[in-house]
């Protein structure tokens, strides 16, 4: 055969790769990115582009605002812009609950799961529905304050307005990028170059990571551009970045690896080799240690190589700690069924964000826990909308050793279901943020779960009397170290007194946006005197906080690290200086909208106390 033919074959393969890559263009940057493909494509036939704002906010993981108002809530993302192109802190925008790394540096911080893939860095999400399903050509995100948090944009094949639910729900990543630091808090229109997909969508999901931000990111609106007919790319070639080809191959490997959760977890036929090479010379424990650094998809792929590695990859010791949150879009009942034999010794399990839109059924979840729940110590189920009363009952029956339970934003669980949690007397951490837990169930939990150390009741709007709850905490939860009462609407100085008297080990207390607390009653000075171990105290938006309260904190809470007094009108620069001089470990001080603390004072304090991050927000 002529040597020309192999060369033609190689060139043909390369040309095919280029066309294939060209058809699935997905750069990892904005349109002005240095690495963006210089696109010369045009759609054939020509379609009229449809431009639409989000019609509805379907789901989200957290927000700064209240469940009973529109200020700072995710619901502000629906419709046309309220603020853009203005910059600054506006209540009409969508704001997530956290920013920076401050929440990872407080007593309530949780240990991270190992084996989290480097490509997954999402901390929060919001899902938006649009009127018309289209093939996306662009997504514009209007960011009005501290931009740069969006790290991933996804599209879903399911139409949220269809009367017939699809047999299969697919999610495709339109764009993703690691968190980046944006210079300045000013507003911008963020328009990353997105990948083309082969199905129309009217359901877009934004995932964010705010760890590099100096303050809360604020989003105003999302605009979806698209066409009704699937674009057919012309064969006109363009410049192609070879690094983009590598990135596309990485994404394909990731997708392939996750498909193995449903296909290769089961027993496969493997060829038995007469020798395993150098692996025969390594101790079993050393091979296990090496494999412990692999992600779950990598373990699945490695298990297909030979029987020796298959045995190692299926060893339950590899699944003591397992986080499936990075793979939320692909986890279903079949995945859990295949994992059962490997997770008989599992102690930490993260199923946050998984199972929605019918992917995980109540029966599938129950079957898994009945096999794998006996050793569970930590169970993360944030935003698990498939959970119901049966699921909580199974958790309490099948997980006798459970110490940590996260039900954050599981807002579909009915109120009466929370009574079952009282059966888990070993609980040390319970997160009920944005749930429908009611007072009777919570009182029962506090009565029987006396080992509680960390409790989150933020935005639990169905509790009628927080004073009664605080009194029960003071009487029963003597080991409490952190307590989140963010936006509880009816706690008074009476409840605070009971809490401070009984829970003197408290190191973290969030009383942000609690309007019924008034400094004139002495509630904050009582806290300062009774809780000397406080490291984090949020009194956000309490306008009554005054110099006396700050001076009491300076005198009694010298271990204080984080203090939020946003919105107070009664605190002077002199009391803040006393606080900063006394609390040597203070690292975060939020004085946004404090009328007596202007920018000049902030600059002076920053100069004299350079180790403290002093935040002064603004509105233009």
TrEMBL record:
SUPFAM superfamilies: F-box domain, RNI-like. Pfam families: DUF7885, F-box-like. GO terms for biological process: SCF-dependent proteasomal ubiquitin-dependent protein catabolic process. One of its GO terms (cellular component) is SCF ubiquitin ligase complex. The keyword Ubl conjugation does not apply. Keywords: Leucine-rich repeat, Ubl conjugation pathway. Coiled coil: none annotated. Residues 276-331 form the F-box domain. This is FBXL4 protein. The lineage of its organism: Eukaryota, Metazoa, Chordata, Craniata, Vertebrata.
